Amino acid sequence: EIFIKKILNRCNNPGAVLKTLSKIPEDERENIFKAAEILIKDELNGSKIAEILNAVKETAQVQRTSLCESAKTFLKEEMDEYDVAWILKAVSKIPEIERESVFKSAKILLEEEKGGFTISEVLEAILEIPKVERESVCNATKNFITKRMSGWDIVEILDAIKVIPEFERENIFKTVKTLIKDKTEGRDIASILKKEAQKKQKTKELVI
Length: 208
Hints:
By secondary structure, the chain is an all-alpha fold. The protein contains twelve helices and no strands.
């Protein structure tokens, strides 16, 4: 209760926190605030605190602390409540045993500052890639990523590359790089990658 009062007294939108708090059963509040403390102890944005508490509330009790500790990897001070909500939602979908692998691969593509939606899209796309291939696919994808690309752009390129056998990528990439320009959109790069991979496959079939 003391911790809750301190948060309400210092944050700039206590109404948002109180609204979320009213939806949390009284016997759950201590557990939720304890799990969320790592994310909200220095936070002043009441709307962001409310989003964090709401996401933690929707998570199974035994997974709450792990969720918050994991999400902290990608949360930045300047992010708003919507960024936070997207990231927490994405992290909650990743089994705890998979997070280290997914996060390590995601950091390859998220070196530049990205918003919560982009981060969430990348995390969910990487989870769909077999564990043994994640790092390789992300390193390959990095060849085509630019600062201005959205999460959708990155995901489309990821999806195009993950189906190309690793031993064929180098040759296909050489061809693709001659066909794209600095301002080529991510979806167009993905389309070119798919077409070149299909050409390669057809050539192999003709040889056979």
